[in-house]
Here is the input.
Amino acid sequence: MRPPAGGGKPRPYEICGDRIRMLKGAFLGFGHVAEHAHAPGWKARPDVTVVAGTDSREERRAAFLQAFPEARWHATAEDLLSSERLDFVDICTPPGSHALLVRQALARSLHVLCEKPLVVSPEELRGLPALAAEKERALCTVHNWRYAPAIAKVGRIVSSGGLGEIRRVRWETLRDRPAITIGDAENWRVDPIQAGGGILIDHGWHAFYVVSSWLSSAPRTVAARLETRKHHEWPVEDTVDLFLVYAAATAEIFLTWAETRRANVAEIHGTKGVLKLDGSSLKLFDADGSKMVEEWTVPSVAEGSHHPDWFAGVIDAFFDEIGDEKWRGRNLAEATLCANVMALSRESSRQGGVPLPIERMRR
Here is the structure.
């Protein structure tokens, strides 16, 4: 690979004269998110061609071939991986299958983009970073909320120093139920085997990497309580209350599927100002929060569930890691943090909500 003319980040594909050798990718799993978020993103790239796909549900074949008419369909992931010549895979299966598929793809020296969560426990993560390093391949999780316009706007304000030093963050994800899936009569998001848990793993993963990016550090301790407030028919929690302690700040994270409205709310308190996000309203206040300084209207993070417009940023970040070893591993470090915080949150809840040191489970 060589950098583009005029310098800048290297392209993750090869240029041969006036021709581009496009990267060849394949889908492992083709449900709602793959069809409505990932597929449009890949189809918009001139440097990528999706050549194959598979899903455990044969009925997904028609949707895949409608999106990629020139591609090949395989009955199993094993068949696809053994017969296709690929550069990367995009894993869009339920979380319980992620670890095995990631390991199989890395073993074949493929770059891997995987829907969140990368794994459902730190134990499943063990050995994957070493395998990615051995094969010199990128291993990335879809951290798409980072590219939501509202979250990106907040990030720019925080990184510019407009709030001063961050001292406290409050994050709320409010829903009345989990997102739908293919065959929603048996929604895998509430199956502990397929999903790996309830709202903690479904929405907590996003909250962990977003909040930690605002604080530019990893949390030191976590205390959590997992409970069921509304959906007692499901064998997973529908509500989580977490408290994270950082070196110079704290973060409160509240997640629920038991609300009557669909919204995302955040407050960031700094030494110079307070930023409040509620739906499509983003407001900047002075340091004591009494006087509004500026206001913006932003697309609500809670609008929709597929977010195809956020996926372009995911692809760009994935290609940064493919094309430049200096970038490689940044996303994996975030995913490792998320996996550890999730596991410790469950353990804290089992112990009655006691704070637990996150260093204990770092790998």
